[in-house]
């Protein structure tokens, strides 16, 4: 693993520190996590502080009413997984939605709202691994919500884009609170404009003081359920009362000496592992080579074909993860890759909105954490008087009762958000992740190969031009992608389009630890307002 070398012309150099590091998409959130480290908190406390702060300083991608997943490496050399995604309401059904005239799950409104897991994730992580009280850890987020902060450039861009879309699409009284909270002057805030939300601050304070109990079994739960009922939604108080996040065993594949870890289904991390498993016996010498990119694309398409077919609530999966990650199945998939592009079966893959963060402390603890409202601001629902923006994760359910990811009461859907982690010989290498809807496993796959196969340090691995499979033979590449490779891929049958908007190619963060010195080496995303805070 390259820690200090710079074999790729990266836009920024990797960041190096020893005592602690926080990498995420917003400088204010990264600094909030670092402040908690300096107050005596550990990497878990810093991750919670950063995540809570991101609900305030990057509401375009996540919120209190979203879901979360975490991979936590503790100083005793154990890796723990947390699945804090929520199920569909118990009163919802395909039949009810079809009777209302729906042929597929809506994108906005109360129907696609599932039980949020974010507050429960913070509380569970704090209770099991945290050192500081939740009231102290959430303090930076509360202060930013109450006192306000100036919008950064990328944040302003996506806020304005969401406002423009919502103004056209969101009709009805249930959406009025979103505009009151996020467009207080009848428009999206501009770059440098101060935005605040007293309701958001009060809700975070209540979550901190009750260790999230109010959100699921108290005052906040009552407000959420009342808002749902008044708008004809299916989410009820009993759905919130019965919710608990799940501690899970992470899954992995060994890729050329490194163990790459993901959260098991219902998350799509399995897709990244399957793609790596398909190519793990191939040798690659050059990253910018048509053979390399062709094999990457074909492996990813096969992995996504299976992922979209099989991934759903783990209690309802008909296919074993172990079978999909087996040596035999990986070889079978590799044998099917030829010299030209193939056509897989899944449909179009929509883009999404998520935040990802990595933290590490000087004791050996490291966290890979991701949370999301999905598709930017999510459902367009904000619970009145709380600042809680609700996710629309249920949009991924199928209304085809024969589909493995078919909507059922109390079922968890296929989930796009995934944290990643890397180890070698039982030692932590570090957390990594790339947010962005269905780009996420593709980003994990490319960043992991950049570091392992091509010797790129964390920053260079993130800065390297990316590709994204869309559907069929359609591939989208960044404008910085080498033209000669594009031409050679076209000759192999790939349908290439060049995008000048890098926002759809994910936003990643990486923190690696040098096993010999304990020094931390970090990379952050230039495709957003990425920042690393460290000391």
From TrEMBL:
Record note on modification: Cleaved by autocatalysis into a large and a small subunit.
Keywords per UniProt: Acyltransferase, Glutathione biosynthesis, Hydrolase, Transferase, Zymogen
Highest rank taxon of the organism: Bacteria
Catalytic activity annotation: an S-substituted glutathione + H2O = an S-substituted L-cysteinylglycine + L-glutamate; glutathione + H2O = L-cysteinylglycine + L-glutamate; an N-terminal (5-L-glutamyl)-[peptide] + an alpha-amino acid = 5-L-glutamyl amino acid + an N-terminal L-alpha-aminoacyl-[peptide]
GO biological-process terms attached to the record: glutathione biosynthetic process; glutathione catabolic process
Gene3D superfamilies, per database record: 1.10.246.230, 3.60.20.40
Residues reported in the UniProt entry to bind L-glutamate: 396, 437
GO molecular function, one term: leukotriene C4 gamma-glutamyl transferase activity
Pathway: Sulfur metabolism; glutathione metabolism
Active-site residues, as the UniProt record annotates them: 354 (nucleophile)
Transmembrane segments: none
InterPro entries: GGT-like_enzyme, GGT_peptidase, GGT_ssub_C, Ntn_hydrolases_N
EC number: 2.3.2.2, 3.4.19.13
Self-association and partners: This enzyme consists of two polypeptide chains, which are synthesized in precursor form from a single polypeptide.
Family of the protein in this entry: Belongs to the gamma-glutamyltransferase family.
NCBIfam families assigned: g_glut_trans (TIGR00066)
Name by which UniProt lists this protein: Glutathione hydrolase proenzyme
């Amino acid at each position: 693993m390259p820690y200090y070398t710079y074999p790729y012309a990266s836009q920024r150099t990797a960041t190096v520190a020893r005592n602690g590091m926080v990498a995420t998409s917003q400088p204010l959130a990264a600094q909030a996590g670092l402040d908690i480290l300096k107050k005596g908190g550990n990497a878990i406390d810093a991750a919670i502080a950063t995540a809570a702060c991101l609900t305030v300083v990057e509401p375009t991608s996540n919120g209190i009413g979203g879901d979360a997943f975490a991979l936590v490496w503790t100083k005793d050399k154990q890796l723990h997984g947390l699945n804090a995604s929520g199920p569909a309401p118990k009163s919802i059904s395909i039949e009810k939605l079809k009777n209302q005239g729906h042929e597929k799950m809506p994108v906005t409104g109360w129907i696609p709202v599932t039980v949020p897991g974010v507050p429960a994730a913070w509380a569970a992580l704090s209770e099991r691994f945290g050192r500081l009280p939740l009231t102290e850890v959430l303090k930076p987020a509360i202060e930013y919500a109450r006192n306000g902060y100036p919008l950064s450039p990328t944040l302003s861009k996506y806020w304005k884009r969401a406002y423009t879309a919502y103004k056209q699409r969101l009709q009805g009284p249930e959406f009025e609170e979103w505009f009151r909270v996020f467009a207080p002057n009848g428009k999206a805030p501009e770059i440098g404009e101060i935005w605040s939300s007293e309701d958001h601050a009060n809700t975070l304070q209540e979550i901190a003081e009750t260790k999230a109990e109010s959100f699921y079994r108290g005052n906040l739960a009552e407000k959420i359920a009342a808002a749902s009922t008044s708008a004809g939604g299916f989410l009820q108080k009993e759905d919130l009362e019965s919710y608990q996040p799940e501690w899970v065993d992470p899954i992995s594949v060994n890729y050329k000496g490194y163990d790459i870890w993901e959260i098991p289904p219902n998350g799509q991390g399995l897709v990244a592992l399957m793609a790596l498993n398909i190519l793990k016996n191939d040798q690659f010498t050059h990253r910018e080579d048509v053979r390399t990119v062709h094999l990457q694309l074909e492996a990813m398409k096969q992995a996504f074909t299976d992922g979209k077919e099989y991934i759903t609530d783990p209690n309802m999966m008909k296919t074993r993860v172990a079978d999909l990650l087996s040596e035999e199945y990986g070889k079978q998939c590799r044998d099917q890759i030829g010299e030209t592009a193939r056509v897989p079966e899944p449909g179009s893959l929509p883009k999404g909105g998520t935040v990802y963060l990595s933290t590490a402390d000087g004791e050996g603890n490291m966290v890979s954490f991701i949370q999301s409202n999905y598709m930017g601001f999510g459902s367009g629902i904000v619970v009145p008087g709380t600042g809680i923006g609700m996710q629309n994760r249920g949009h991924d359910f199928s209304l085809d009762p024969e589909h493995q990811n078919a909507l059922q009461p109390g079922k968890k859907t296929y989930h796009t958000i995934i944290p990643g982690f890397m180890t070698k010989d039982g030692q932590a290498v570090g957390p990594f992740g790339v947010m962005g809807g269905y780009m996420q496993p593709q980003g994990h796959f490319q960043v992991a190969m950049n570091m392992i196969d091509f010797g790129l340090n964390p920053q260079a691995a993130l800065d390297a031009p990316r590709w994204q499979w869309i559907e069929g033979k359609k591939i989208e590449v960044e404008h910085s992608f080498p033209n000669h490779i594009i031409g050679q891929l076209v000759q192999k049958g790939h349908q290439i389009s060049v995008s000048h908007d890098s926002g759809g190619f994910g936003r990643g963060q990486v923190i690696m630890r040098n096993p010999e010195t304990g020094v931390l080496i970090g990379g952050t995303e230039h495709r957003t307002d990425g920042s690393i805070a460290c000391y």
